[in-house]
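Protocol step 4 of 6: record predicted structures for both targets in the notebook before any analysis. Target 1:
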Amino acid sequence: MGKTTDHRVRLFVLFALLASQGAATEHPNIVLIYADDLGYGDVQVYNPDSKIPTPEIIRLAEEGMVFFDGHSASTVCTPSRYAVMTGRLPFRTGYQGVFKGVEGPCLIQSARLTLPEMLQEAGYRTALIGKWHIGATFLDRDGQPVYETSDASGPELVAHADLTRPIADGPLHHGFDTFFGTIGCPTTDYLYSYIDGDRLTALPGPVRDRSNWPQNPWTLDFREGVVSPDFDFEEVDMVFLEKSLNFMEEQVTERPEEPFFLFHSTQLVHLPSFPAKSMQGKTDAGPHGDFIYQFDYTVGEIVKKLEELGIAENTLIILTSDNGPEVTATREMVEQYDHNGAHPWRGLKRDNWEGGHRVPFIVKWPAKIQAGRTTDIYVSQTDLMHTFAALVDYDLPVDAAEDSYNFLPLLLDEVSEPVRPFLIHHTHKLLLGIRQGPWKYLEHQGSGGNDYSQEKIRFARRSGTDWMAPAQLYNLNEDPEEMNNLYDQYPEKVAYFESLLKTIKESGRSR
């Protein structure tokens, strides 16, 4: 009798497991392709005058849905990535700027639910390939966090770390089953080494200077640092691409019943512009043009692999960027090639004007999204977490994704109205902007980011009105270039937005 009961229990467990696997396969695979410093005007879908061919992104747009009003949460990379991972506005951390080298700790607290953790609980296999850049804990030779035992920075802080030790508090500790990439900006941040899981793939050699690198305006962002022998600056994104393609193939081959989430986080197109050898000369727009073309190629290769594996139909692809285009890249592209990566908006990376955070945002899901759709409804990258929660029927707790809204009904063409009551974004200085309908309010003077009195950015200066007002109010329907500050003309709207921002700051949430 006991053995029969045990057998029935085992059968019940087996059937339950099979049923759960069947349910899991109904969930789509999710691929998030996250560019770095790719501007709205860099992509032909958004800028027909772009000097760089982007045929693969055009194809993605034609077969999917284009958002003309998609936004990063911040105007620089570290906080924007935090927002994607948590569904929470990054100004709430109080951290200003971006991480460099082996700086830490991770911005994401251990108790905070992340997007990949949520998907893990829903049965997904999760992978981050590429750039992390949300901070981690490197240990010194005594096993203590380097940020607690040294006041050094740059290469000196890297030298203080024991790079043979596992890296604590990184991607594997916040929801990713697999990580291959770099802790910071791959070719900019003092430690030029790949990390597989929580360890370097090879220890770096001595500090390397810039003397033997190509000398052009697009390479000046390279910082001197230590380089591992397996790290080729020109091939970094090709390595990332190969790893992502292999992950998808292994997933389908070895775990066909299990959906996956792939976060492909590129160095493309962050300076320095080191296009792969096979990509050099592909455009008539110099090294940075080739770099943007390489990003387009990357998109095409990921889509092609999904099609080859027979899983493209039920895979949700999202393509977007962490902020607008870099100052140096934009200036040189404008002056040398008549190409404006921020077109048609005012502002660049770091700025609270539209060019700093309005970015490409394209979604494809053949099983559910009708091809060729477009929308002018605004969405934020903080909304990815709530949207994915709805996608997998996950009940978000009250202390998670506090600033995230669900735009799944918009993808499924079930609504035609905004899915969030307002849009919030901010600069690396934690200066906030808020948008409701056509009205946009900036709680500060000027760009909130770049110093437009500097010669290097004068090319992007635009004349306007009422620069002495303490804040800025624009109607984007009438003034999309944000030239006519209406602060003094609509005091009631100014008071409304100031009150709303105060509530959002003090309440700890906007959802």
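Target 2:
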Amino acid sequence: MAMIARKCPGISVTVVDLNEQRIAEWNSGELPVYEPGLHEIVENTRGKNLFFSTDIDQNIQDADVIFISVNTPTKDYGSGAGQAADLRFVESCARRIAEAGGGDKVVVEKSTVPVRTAQMVNEVLKGANNGFNYQVVSNPEFLAEGTAMVDLESPDRVLIGGEKTDTGNAAVKKVASIYANWVEDDRIITTNLWSSELSKLTANAFLAQRISSINAISALCEETEADVDEVAKAIGMDTRIGPKFLKSSIGFGGSCFQKDILNLTYLCRHFGLPEVAGYWQQVISMNEYQKERFVQRMLDAMHNTISGKQIAILGFAFKKDTNDARESPAISICKRLLEEKGSLKIYDPQVSKESILSCLDISDESVLARLTFSESAEQACSSAHAIAILTEWDEFKELDYKKILDTMYRPAHIFDGRNLLVLEKLRELGYRAFGIGKA
């Protein structure tokens, strides 16, 4: 919405939410989301044609186009628990739109939803019988956290799906006209509703599949003394494959990949396709295996015990340049290290202590006593027996590891879960250094 406001000064954009604190943060100088370039755009457009408000009904009534942009987490209750998408927030939005009224509307699914969700939204809107006409359009978002503003300014494509009727085509054209202010026509793709909804899930599944594929090869590399980065470079130069998403690591995280693949497997089983479901389930299984493999390698290197030892955790966000820790691989790894009676000193430049504690969800006071938070990477590493790099923040490449070594217990270990550092140089300094997919 911030990018639309920036690129379309003639369009008034209002973001509404029930959460008063969140809206207050968007109206302040300290935004609740860290994303490079976002703060500047919000500062330049807020109060001009970008607004943040808790006055939901009035803004619904005034709007011509409404984007539903709420969370669609994996269900943790009832039928489909652990796999199906929880659409209660989407349905709640549709009901609120119908209740508020205010004239004919184009309602846009911006949230990632399972295929056929538009049918539910349509039924809720039409069931209101309020005399207004609604057109539901699917417009999934393909940006990546950390590069979101660049992705929005110059997208690979903008996908818009609608009903293949005169009114449906008019609604698609109306949404497309917003993006046409800065996106080339050949990058604006129009499809039917169901193709658009399924394309988002499929795109995320394919990207996650590539990560799990190279991570599977990383395990073989460690056993055969091959180097996974060299393998990735060699296969990535094949134009049929390409180099993107071939960076081996501790696994994928974030709010989308796992959730969307679980949703995809649920849909496949629902429609009687167990073999297809099993195929995509294996992508998640490999991701879980990679995280456990990382922990096991730490244990093996440290005489099969970390009890009473200090582990510096560098990075908690699921990737660099974001404060988002949802489904971060760091969560599982930190929990496992705590299970092994290790003491953790955590540092992340953007993820707050409160967010980390919420993600770890630990109630045992004796476990919490082995968890501390540091103001810098150097502070986290001081008096540590080992360093685990779990997020590829650029600042971790610039640390003075020779100086850090002098503050650590010997033997000092580094476990680079992002292949950020040069292992040979670390070993020359005196570290026992380990990467992913490297001997």
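Step 5 preliminary note on target 2. The longest helix spans residues 193-224. The first strand starts at residue 13 and ends at 16.
Proceed to step 6 after PI sign-off.
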